Amino acid sequence: MPCDLHVHTSASDGTENPAEVVEKAGKAGLTALAVTDHDTIRGVAPALEAGREIGITVLPGVELAAEEEDGEVHLLGYLFDPHHPLLREELARLEKARLARVERMVEKIRALGIPLALERVLALAGEGTVGRPHVARALVEIGAVGSVAEAFARYLERHGPAYVPRLKMAPEEAVLLIRRAGGVAVLAHPGLSRCEELIPRLVSAGLQGLEVYHPEHTPQMVEHYRGLCRRYGLLATGGSDYHGAGHRRYSRLGEVTAPDEVVEKMLALAGRTA
After folding, report:
1. CATH topology of domain 2-90+168-269
2. Would you state the CATH architecture of domain 100-156?
3. What is the secondary structure of 204-252 as a DSSP string?
4. Total-model pTM
5. Which of 106, 116, 179, 229 fits a disulfide with 236 by CB distance 3.0 to 4.6 angstroms?
6. What's 160's DSSP letter?
């Protein structure tokens, strides 16, 4: 039975609220999904409540961004204690840094002669964590660009004129944070970050899985990462990286899934039962 273990909601840069995503997952025939918003767990509680009402298993999750010399690396955490003090402290620090980053991006855009209002960017983020996608959507609204993709290409991608580096966390630090909070640590979409040389280091730090199945992974990549899972004794997970209908890349919930046995193995690793 299919499980989608990489899903975003409006708590970060998704376009649908947690309850809407869970309802859609139920209609799509998924037996389980994990809410893995960027640097926040605000969407977890409402998703869990919706899951109980609908009868679908919801796993608490988070996606943490870390920095390597060659670029960004993302770590997925599952089944952690959402009240763990170290986790809550770090997420609060990341949220504060996200706001400061967006404020600086807006300043840079305004310096280019584009009348972008910070208030509108924050309004688009709503109760969720603010980030580059909200800046991009605000640029589309005022007609500065024709699409979110164009906003990223012209202004917001790394080395773009409005790009601002994020608060840096080492990948090993992200793994340790997830593990200390009682969670399962998984390297997200390794085919995108091209960080294979990092895997042995992360395994030593406590990494427990690789996101083998992802919309951007070719069949050859899937086989390769399955092999790495066997080599290092890692769990092979997967998900659609869903961000909502109409998203420029990840708009199909359940497009990529993992078998439900993966959830059982995750629960065992976390010392929990369904």
Report:
1. TIM Barrel (3.20.20)
2. Orthogonal Bundle (1.10)
3. HHT--EEEEE-TT--HHHHHHHHHHHHHHT-EEEE---B--TT-SS---
4. 0.90
5. 229
6. S
